[in-house]
Design a protein that fits this description.
single chain, 9 strands
């Protein structure tokens, strides 16, 4: 599945669930906007983001047969903390990963861009989270 198809399906799913979405395609894993829509995304999320009260829950790309989740408070997009946000993912296959979403990535997402953020290496692999703003 290419990036355009995934984002379109994710947006449709969120709208059906009464959530709006604001998505802009990425140029590369740095999260810059303006990509060629025909480019293949090697790190799509294992599930679309979902609202959970005042938080958004993101699911990572699948690596070695599993994925992780990471929760971001909506307030982090409204007022991006100076150091960004850092925390541990959910546990899967007996391990977690540390993830940092820096202030600039949070600001880009708040403006409607997409940020690709890679976890720290754990158990000899990493995961990529696709961070988008959902309404």
């Amino acid at each position: 599945m290419d990036r355009r198809t995934f984002l379109k399906d994710a947006a449709t799913t969120l709208l059906v669930l009464a959530f709006g979405t604001s998505l802009v395609q990425c140029d590369d894993e740095s999260g810059k906007s303006g990509s060629n829509a025909s480019e293949h995304d090697d790190t799509p999320p294992d599930a679309p983001p979902r609202a959970a009260g005042t938080n958004i829950v993101y699911t990572s790309s699948e690596t070695e047969g599993h994925s992780h989740s990471f929760t971001v408070p909506r307030s982090a997009f409204e007022s991006a903390p100076l150091g960004g946000i850092t925390g541990l993912t959910t546990e899967a296959q007996g391990h977690q990963h540390r993830l940092t979403i820096d202030q600039e990535a949070l600001r880009r997402v708040a403006a409607g861009d997409v940020a690709k953020v890679e976890t720290e290496d754990q158990a000899e692999h990493t995961h990529v989270f696709t961070i988008v703003k959902i309404d």
